[in-house]
Amino acid sequence: xxxxxxxxxxxxxxxxxxxxxxxxxxxxxxxxxxxxxxxxxxxxxxxxxxxxxxxxxxxxxxxxxxxxxxxxxxxxxxxxxxxxxxxxxxxxxxxxxxxxxxxxxxxxxxxxxxxxxxxxxxxxxxxxxxxxxxxxxxxxxxxxxxxxxxxxxxxxxxxxxxxxxxxxxxxxxxxxxxxxxxxxxxxxxxxxxxxxxxxxxxxxxxxxxxxxxxxxxxxxxxxxxxxxxxxxxxxxxxxxxxxxxxxxxxxxxxxxxxxxxxxxxxxxxxxxxxxxxxxxxxxxxxxxxxxxxxxxxxxxxxxxxxxxxxxxxxxxxxxxxxx
Amino acid sequence: xxxxxxxxxxxxxxxxxxxxxxxxxxxxxxxxxxxxxxxxxxxxxxxxxxxxxxxxxxxxxxxxxxxxxxxxxxxxxxxxxxxxxxxxxxxxxxxxxxxxxxxxxxxxxxxxxxxxxxxxxxxx
Lengths: 323, 124
Hints:
Chain A has helices at residues 26-33, 218-226, and strands spanning 2-3, 16-17, 79-81, 87-93, 104-110, 115-121, 131-139, 146-152, 170-177, 185-191, 198-206, 229-233, 241-245, 251-252, 255-256, 266-270, 274-276, 293-294, 297-298, 304-309, 316-320.
């Protein structure tokens, strides 16, 4: 077997012929691997999967905000951690985005004490003892305002370098070796002074160097997001619960989640629904449920048609489970 | 997220925040209600919290395992079970003894027998 003109650039016309039964030595393999590219990457980068959910900030099941309260979720999986006395307004942004992105996460932040936008990693146990690298593309005109960090239950990590305060998107990164006894992993975009940043294209991978953002197909990304949150209703008459009652016996039916949750979720009925033949708090959700479905029910006030349905976009049932 | 508890006072007052409407207020733990079983009796594994804002009419049912906010929802159940002294179906009576925090946590853990190890966020 001979290796000639090993690949050095994408679309190279160089070839490598391997005869049947040929042996690939370590030096040949190293030469091959060191010259494998992925689209838009650098030599030596093999494409990796993102540990984060909604790293591109594209999924927005909760709508377009703005969100302002401490512990509020914003776009899927990203949550506000507001320091005492600080204020923030968070909303998806379409005008200032990273390359090949539709949405960034925009913030107007007034600082009093340290705050962050964070994501909790569910499967912390799989990363115990491993080194993780976290990166985010960020834009802000305020220097020394925005940087990133990985924390686990044992200790906070070391924050990376600040954004320099130019008008350009810069890659902010940090690494941490996760404690072998960790019971949580959290990645944070730290806000250390008053600023109006935009963040985009976050990536968390095993390794000691940041990795270019690799997007998932939108269908796959939505499925991942719906493991934690999904929304039913919000459309007039959808879903519509209707039955004929012969008495006051309880009427229930199963509603299957789009995606199985990581645990039994909280069920929330929002808004004032249309109803007849039943009570004003219909549909009632306190019957039973698990990680795969729930059972709304109606209690008739008497014999006859019973019904409830949303009558506006803010009449919803939200399903939420967080690790 | 939900209509969820965010802080607890010793007198049974709970601060509630309703994420979807960006508003909240205080309710007393005695105003929360357990869910229902098929026979109409109480389902102690679900607790309903109504939004305290007048006119909102929204509510959340939280599972005893934690749901949207493991620590605070588990604290909610502990607070509820403490206020149900000898029989959880009895209304709270002024002067009646409360369950200890430790006993309430043990009761909550017994009710959530499917909870995976390591998922309790609160200590005895």
